[in-house]
């Protein structure tokens, strides 16, 4: 079985913001997968949401970077009712630890190989 290939979120015209969520999970799923999928769908409806990249290391470190056009979009997502409930449940059940960083992106560019 091969893994599905994914591509990084494209570069956007700065300035915009990156929300970097780095976490170490507890053992087991306890509904995490379904909730993560639901949050991934809900955030798409937040005005100013540009996309997200996510990866997990073999040692269990997970990094998700969500991109937003402005701080208002980040605030709308932070205070979204279902997202707040998921964060509260996550602190009680899913995470050993996590950190959150918000950064202003001042430069952005990308590369894509052209087919031969």
From TrEMBL:
SUPFAM superfamilies associated with the record: Dimeric alpha+beta barrel
Top-rank taxon, per record: Bacteria
GO molecular function, one term: monooxygenase activity
Pfam families: ABM (PF03992)
Annotated ABM domain residues: 16-88
UniProt keyword list: Monooxygenase, Oxidoreductase
Protein's name according to its UniProt entry: Antibiotic biosynthesis monooxygenase
């Amino acid at each position: 079985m091969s893994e599905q290939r994914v591509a990084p979120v494209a570069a956007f015209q700065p300035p915009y913001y990156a929300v970097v969520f780095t976490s170490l999970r507890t053992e087991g799923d306890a509904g995490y997968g379904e909730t993560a999928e639901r949050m991934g769908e809900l955030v798409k409806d937040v005005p100013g949401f540009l996309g997200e990249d996510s990866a997990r290391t073999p040692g269990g470190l997970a990094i998700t970077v969500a991109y937003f056009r402005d701080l208002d979009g980040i605030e709308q997502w932070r205070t979204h009712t279902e997202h707040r409930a998921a964060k509260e449940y996550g602190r009680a059940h899913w995470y050993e630890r996590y950190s959150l960083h918000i950064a202003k992106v001042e430069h952005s560019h990308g590369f894509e190989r052209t087919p031969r």
